[in-house]
Design brief:
This protein is about 40% helix and about 20% strand. It has eight helices and eleven strands. The strands form four sheets. A five-stranded antiparallel β-sheet has the order 1-2-3-5-4, sandwiched between helices. Strands 6-7 form a two-stranded antiparallel ribbon.
């Protein structure tokens, strides 16, 4: 590599590290190390845009690193806590697994199949789904803003510590919690017009002993051809979890009838 090119690349790397570090406050270097996979140049530009819009003030640390995205804890200019979800822009998994959840959705039309276009549409889809959930009264994070591959939501938890998920902690009253969760599923279907599609103990938080449904990027409109199959899977997953912890669950068919509004009660 020519000497001049090496110098330019090193300068670019130092500049970007400075930019990344300027966004982070009180982070532990080992726990909150920022990877190139997350903060590429377009993502940094998107973060700055959200800062300029006064949506984000600080990104304080990483909460969770998943296969598709990093979730960070941050604050807005008024000090209110935020959950900031940043989807990776270098993952080809979106092209393989996510297009089927976007195609056929009239909200997004024809989607280009390059990775960044799919990811940007995916981010928009999760924001739109959260908007529908909020309007329907579903207990879920409230959407605040999105731009490119960044989704900003209300933070469920306090002082940077997220609320536990069902996988991590059992509710104090599992039977009551089960019924509340079925009620949220019914709201999501009948009022928001959505099917979660990946509901399980991994994406239901316990906050003030009530269920908070999150991670609804893959959720589909109930009119989508895949919706019925995904609803059945959601019901089976929920019943399997609560059955394992000793709750006497309703039959899958009965739950389906009630969730979709075909029955007045579950008795």
């Amino acid at each position: 590599m020519p000497s001049r090119e090496r110098v330019v690349r090193k300068a670019d790397a130092r500049e970007r590290r400075y930019e990344e570090d300027s966004l982070m406050l009180n982070k532990d270097q080992e726990e909150y190390q920022v990877s190139d996979e997350v903060f590429d140049r377009p993502t940094l530009e998107a973060v700055y845009r959200l800062i300029h819009r006064k949506v984000i003030d600080r990104i304080k640390g990483a909460i969770k690193a998943g296969k598709e995205a990093h979730i960070y804890w941050g604050t807005d200019p008024k000090g209110r806590e935020l959950a900031i979800k940043i989807y990776y822009t270098s993952s080809a998994d979106f092209r393989k697994g996510m297009v089927k959840y976007i195609e056929g959705d009239p909200r997004f039309g024809r989607v280009r199949h390059d990775i960044k276009s799919i990811i940007y549409t995916w981010t928009q889809k999760e924001f739109s789904n959260l908007q529908l959930a909020e309007q329907a009264g579903v207990n879920a994070p409230r959407p605040i803003e999105f731009y490119r591959n960044i989704l900003v939501m209300t933070f469920i938890g306090t002082d940077g510590v997220p609320a536990p998920v069902l996988r991590e902690k059992r509710p104090e009253d599992p039977e009551a919690f089960y019924r509340l969760l079925l009620g949220e599923m019914r709201l999501m279907y009948t009022r928001a017009g959505l099917v979660h599609g990946d509901l399980s103990e991994y994406n239901v938080m316990i906050w003030e002993e009530k269920p908070v449904i999150f991670d609804i990027s893959q959720a589909m409109l109930k009119a989508h051809p895949m919706a019925w199959e995904l609803l059945r899977r959601d019901i089976e997953n929920v019943n399997a979890y609560f059955g394992r912890i000793g709750v006497r669950v309703y039959e899958n068919d009965r739950v389906e009838e009630w969730v979709t509004g075909g029955a007045e009660d579950l008795r």
